[in-house]
């Protein structure tokens, strides 16, 4: 069997097996080198898998040679590889840029264990994306979650412990809800394979347990994805985590939970439960609209830079759900493309935060007064990524918002309300991004304030590459749009 055929398994196996080895690398900098190389290898595997899928192939891999539904199957399609690009790309970019920041926030003696945890998060998120087995999604979810709690608590700010405790409680509740739903479906169908579930649920006479399972799974994954109003864990987790950890998590962790939510709902439930598409839209669209408005408003009034960007993420999650709630090719395409584009914009913005954090210990917006004059390159990257977050034409953020507006207009009169809220929230994004820009460029630093200088050159280069990616994929959006369109069409096939 060729190496290419083994790539779905290697996507998970490589970081998972490297993690315990990294924990024993005690020479300074060696753990970071091994982790970054492993993450880059995972990204290269994701790129290779993307090329294969774009060639028209859907990759199916049976672990140990045991065919599904009896064995554990790995399935890769356009939706899967898009998420793999996001997860492995975010990890690699954060590691490449973040050595200086991590050296400042994590003591050398703790770095091997920290980087081992990082690789477990990477392996867990990749495993969630590639597996076709509902219980293995739970297993990988717990691997990534437990390691994430360690990463968030790993910085010098002891307030992270309180944030992690809240994150742990809500994350565990979400995972428990998901597991209860899986148990109910297994009780009624006798299978854990997603494709086999779809085939067997249609033969179930009493669908009440299936309806209850759908509720548990949806709420559990909504907790994991920080869907409004279940987002209470997210602002503090992003705020008090080490800056580079926030880059990684903000770009991909909630996207993976949304991936599972959409995959599970469209594959297993939509075609088997009567009028479930209407129930799905009726449940998610109001929450999405509320999340867009409330997240944006909270960002407008927030005084801490990282917390502001965290509340912005709550609004961006609303955009993704709004597209999915349209239950149309255009709507799903918009939501899936926005997963990619938001990862680009928010990853770049949090990289800027990490650069600023090299000079400033506090990241209140008031503390940023005049920083733009001392860090012109860093704040230039912030402006570019901020324009993408707003959705200015020519940036990646505009592409997904344009698709979302087109999808909303297909929804009739209610679509006009959706468009109005999209435009309103984009204007609010202008307000909170401008607050920061105005402070950093036109604010006056306090007399006697410590000197500020640009971040180290490797960090600055990677930050600018991430910012320019927002411009590149705004002008050349073919790759994410093609993958998202193929993914949307594949999901909607299950409704026929």
Fold and architecture overview:
With 496 residues, this protein is an all-alpha fold. It has a domain at 277-496. The chain is built from 19 helices and 2 strands. The protein has a two-stranded antiparallel sheet with strand order 1-2. It is globular and about 75 Å long. The two termini are 36 Å apart. The mean pLDDT is 88.
In summary, what is this structure?
This protein has 496 residues and is mostly helical.
Question: Which helices and strands appear, and what pairs or packs with what?
Answer:
Blueprint: H1 3-22, H2 30-54, E1 59-62, E2 73-76, H3 78-105, H4 111-130, H5 134-152, H6 159-189, H7 194-201, H8 208-224, H9 234-240, H10 243-269, H11 276-301, H12 305-325, H13 329-357, H14 371-374, H15 376-390, H16 396-409, H17 413-442, H18 457-475, H19 478-492
Antiparallel strand pairs: 1-2
